[in-house]
Design a protein that fits this description.
198 residues, alpha/beta, 20% strand
Length: 198
């Protein structure tokens, strides 16, 4: 069994050999988010880089997701981020592709592209190469939007978890993005959302 242990002992995430425990955890979270969005009539889109479409894949694994999920962009290169999502060249030059500014422009770009109510932008370093002292492997920025509100987080996975690899970084990022989405939308006033069923 392979363990990814948070440095705070009371919080432990275990990756079983077959990833069953982690898959179960993601399945529960994504189902909860999709069902919540369906109840509230909130549409969603995604812009992913280091997760490589994992978030979109998990969302679309839920029956009925087509009622709320409008689409996703897997923008793995800077050119795609600029050409499809509208990330500015100056932002990339001034802050690098691994930055909260780029995550923010990615979520805004996919929201404008699809016309969704909510969106996610993800960019970061999944390794094993490319890390620096300032931005080590496990540096991941996630932007979630609902209408005019936005939350951006530096997940700093390298601070909380040991023995990280690409799969674990992508999986943890997907889980945390789902949590951020649900939290942002739950904080909205009821009158700010429409009901897809009526």
């Amino acid at each position: 069994m392979c363990k990814v242990v948070r440095k705070e002992v009371r919080r432990t995430v275990i990756f079983a050999d077959d990833d069953k425990m982690v898959t179960d955890s993601i399945d529960r979270k994504v189902k909860g988010v999709v069902e919540y969005f369906m109840t509230k009539g909130i549409t969603l889109s995604t812009a992913e880089s280091c997760t490589g479409g994992m978030l979109s894949m998990m969302i679309t694994s839920v029956a009925g997701a087509s009622k709320v999920f409008l689409g996703g962009v897997c923008s793995y290169t800077e050119q795609m981020k600029m050409n499809v999502l509208g990330v500015s060249e100056s932002t990339l030059e001034n802050y690098t592709v691994y930055s909260p500014q780029v995550a923010s422009q990615m979520s805004l770009g996919v929201m404008r592209l699809t016309g969704s109510d909510a969106s996610v932008g993800i960019t970061g370093l999944a390794g094993p190469d490319g890390g620096t002292d300032d931005k080590p492997i496990g540096t991941v920025y996630v932007s979630v939007r609902y209408k005019n509100l936005e939350t951006v987080k530096d997940l700093r996975l390298y601070d909380d978890y040991e023995e990280l690899d690409r799969t674990k970084i992508r999986t943890l990022t997907t889980i945390k993005a789902l949590e951020m989405l649900r939290e942002l939308c739950e904080n909205m006033k009821v009158e700010d959302v429409k009901n897809v069923n009526g």
